[in-house]
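Q: I'm writing up a methods section and want to include an example of the input and output format. Could you take the sequence below and give the corresponding predicted structure tokens, formatted cleanly so I can copy it straight into the document?
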Amino acid sequence: MIGIEETSIYQPEQIVDANELAQQTGIPEQIIIEKFGINEKRVASSDMHASDLAVAAAKKILEKVNPEEIDAIIYFGSPFKDYQVWTASSKIQFELNTTNAYSFEMMNVSSCFPIAVKVARDMLYSDESLTNILLVAGCKESMIVDYENPRSRFMFNFADGGAAALVTKKATRSEILSSSIITDGSFYKDVLIPGGGSVNPFSMEVVSKKLEFIDVPDPKNMKERLDPISIPNFIKVIDLALKKSGKELSDLNILLPLHTKRSMFEELLDKVGLTDEQAVYLNEHGHMSALDPCYGLHLAQEKGLLKKDDIAVIVSAGTGYTWAATAIRWVG
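A: Here is the clean output for your methods example:
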């Protein structure tokens, strides 16, 4: 049985609470708590980078699994890493002493965990030589937010952390079922870091205009196009992942989504017929790129939310814009 056998997370020590965010952004504390859905979030120290956060999370899994038994490592975390044009996965493979594993990276910003789980499952299904694949991720995207830029307001929840998951052919705790993915590439230029790439290479002008921070060039236009399709596309990928798994929406027991504003989270639960007690909301963690559903899965296990034969869906969306969901049967 191919499934997720272990998960782990790493939370940086520094906490930024809603009151501090209110001071940084000028947004009232109650708005940050009630609408942004943030009581607090974690921020990494200056010497902890995306690769270090991923290593810290993965080491917890390797306390239970021999590093030499890992066949492949996939980095699915934030594209904002220690360096540009650089593979964090190579450093992670070395630091974890997984000497028999090859490594590579997947990048689809926030939507990547359900996709990485699908890719790992498909690799194990198709390649007899593979048994254990370690998914690893780090996020330090708190560094790319300019709190003085109102255009990036919806990204004020960006936080830092590490996450990892072991996908194996010898799973006893869960079975990975099917996935569904939708991409609407018309949003390709709506959220980006304007400076530092080949279009606007680093220069004094890039720094003086703060073009090294994430931005939304036209938030009103993006909102008008995104709002009508966002929840429907979440529902589509959840529903199709379940149908491809031989299940219906009514079979869904647990939803593990990325962190969004509170109203979107509640609407999503309402549409799939679940309550707050059947989902994990990261109001004490914030949004950590692709890590969120992995955090959710880990916390759901810790809280005892997953029961034998429960059907869970990990679901996320990433700017660009891609919606992705993967269904899991919990064996326990």
